[in-house]
Amino acid sequence: xxxxxxxxxxxxxLAAGGVSWMVYRSTSHQWMPTAVFFLSMQVSAVFGAMWxxxxxxxxxxxxxxxxx
Length: 68
Fold this sequence. Notes:
This protein has two helices and no strands. The longest helix is centred in the last third of the chain and has 37 residues, at 31-67. The protein has helices at 2-26, 31-67. The protein is mainly α.
């Protein structure tokens, strides 16, 4: 899981920062909605990396079963 997250870390952080900045600007500089958006994107990134890792393991297990 951490392999996938490390590879996509910069892009995820840039996207989270950009969206958070847009939320901050569109809510007349309120920090609470911005924090909610930022934290939800961070949690989603970790869960997405966990899900991608699980899918990768399934695909690799299925590929080894087909070969043998």
